[in-house]
Amino acid sequence: MPNQGEKAPAFTLFDHEKKQRTLKEIIKPEGSTLLAFFPGAFTGVCTREMCTFRDSMAELNKVHAQVVGISVNDPFTNRAFAQQNSLNFPLLSDYNREVVRKYNVFHESFSGLPGYTAAKRSVFILDPEGVVTYKWVSEDPTKEPNYEELKREAAKITA
Question: Is the model's pLDDT at 159 over the cut of 70?
Fold first, then answer.
């Protein structure tokens, strides 16, 4: 798991439009990038979390921050989830579960389903060089991050 002060592990994933996106290309050149890992589209807590980010985008944009959601859902599910909830940021599909393992943010046998691996709810804030300036990882998939704290931490990068 990357710690504060360390470079975030590189990756290439498909977004919800089936376009390949690299970490390098999605990092905001001036400001911060919030990588928000979430367990699964169309679940109650994940929907609430992604919609909270959606509703916070104006405030985040003021401090030059952006959000990128990452789940193990396939791009088709992420697309339907983004459309149904009018999400205004990209959702990346880690359907091979490679990135959740690189970041060490995964639940094995999630929700009592043997062999099913899902992302842990977590947020990594990256600076323009891809260095982790803040991380929050929860073992409890029902726990949401402190959104006000995320906004404060994101704002520190442009301060």
Answer: no
